[in-house]
């Protein structure tokens, strides 16, 4: 099974800051990585698919990059409504797997 | 509009059975895989398995094989997750999700959840 190692596990930043989260796969997953946002008490929401493609309707301050085993998720200018937990997810192999999550808080 | 609507919260005793549901609408239910994901309180997301409602082809994650049963009734656009003998450790939020994308070589490669149900909380307590 593919293990996804996500870091950091928590992050505190100020409104307007650039925020970066990384995800490392235990083996090559090509481009088959998503990023999801989960707000408290809600289901996850798709932000990025195929490592770098922005889901329709998602603000352009969110972006993703990477391929193979190393991936990065960036919020270019943090907004108060971005407070959530962010998960990476690989869909190269079954069973699919998620990173452990990054809890993002406002400083 | 694509929607997945899950059944309501369940409170059960250890050893009891339960079947929760996920009804799809706004798309061709038989043409997309549906998956189930577990989230224990304050924890991360874990894949349980996926099903193709068109022919009920089902693939379980090794951790959940034999522990749960995933099924679907395409006539009413509904997928199910069921337990025959619940344990306290099954207490969690359970989400269904539609999988989008191309299923390369039937391996699951290329499919990802794009729409999610609202979640069903299953609580198992004596």
Q: What share of the residues of chain B lie within helices?
A: under 10%
Measured distance between first and last alpha carbons of chain B:
40 Å
Mean pLDDT of chain A: 97
Alpha-beta classification of chain B: mainly beta
**Uncertain spans of chain A, ≥5 residues at pLDDT below 50?**
none
Compressed to H and E, one letter per element, the order of chain A equals EEEEEEEEEEE
Largest sheet descriptor of chain B: 7 strands, mixed
Rounded to an integer in angstroms, the radius of gyration calculated over CA atoms of chain A is 13 Å
Gap between N and C termini of chain A, in Å? 36 Å
Which term fits the overall shape of chain A?
A: globular
Unreliable runs of chain B: none
Radius of gyration of chain B (CA) equals 14 Å
- 3D shape of chain B: globular
Strand and helix order of chain B: EEEEEEEEEEE
Please, how many helices of chain B? 0
Oligomer designation: heterodimer
- Provide a count of the helices of chain A: 0
Q: Biggest interface, and residues per chain? A: A-B, 22 and 24 residues
The helix content of chain A is: under 10%
Quantity of strands of chain B, as a count:
11
């Amino acid at each position: 099974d593919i293990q996804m190692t996500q870091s950091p596990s928590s992050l505190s930043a100020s409104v307007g800051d650039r925020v970066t989260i990384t995800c490392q796969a235990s083996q090559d997953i090509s481009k088959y990585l998503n990023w999801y946002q989960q707000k408290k008490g809600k289901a996850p929401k798709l932000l990025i698919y195929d490592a770098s493609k922005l889901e329709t309707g998602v603000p352009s301050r969110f972006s993703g990059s990477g391929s193979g085993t190393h991936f990065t998720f960036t919020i270019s200018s943090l907004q108060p409504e971005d407070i959530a937990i962010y998960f990476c997810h690989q869909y190269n192999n079954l069973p699919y797997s998620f990173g452990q999550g990054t809890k993002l808080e406002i400083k | 509009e694509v929607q997945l609507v899950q059944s309501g919260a369940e409170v059960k005793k250890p050893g009891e059975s339960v079947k929760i549901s996920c009804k799809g609408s706004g798309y061709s239910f038989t043409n997309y895989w549906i998956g189930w994901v577990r989230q224990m309180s304050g924890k991360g997301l874990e894949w349980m398995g996926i099903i193709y409602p068109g022919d009920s082809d089902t693939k379980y994650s090794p951790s959940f094989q034999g522990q749960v049963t995933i099924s679907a009734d395409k006539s009413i656009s509904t997928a199910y997750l069921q337990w025959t003998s619940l344990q306290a450790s099954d207490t969690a939020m359970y989400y269904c999700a539609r999988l989008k994308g191309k299923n390369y070589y039937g391996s699951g490669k290329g499919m990802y959840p794009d729409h999610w149900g609202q979640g069903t909380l299953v609580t198992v307590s004596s």
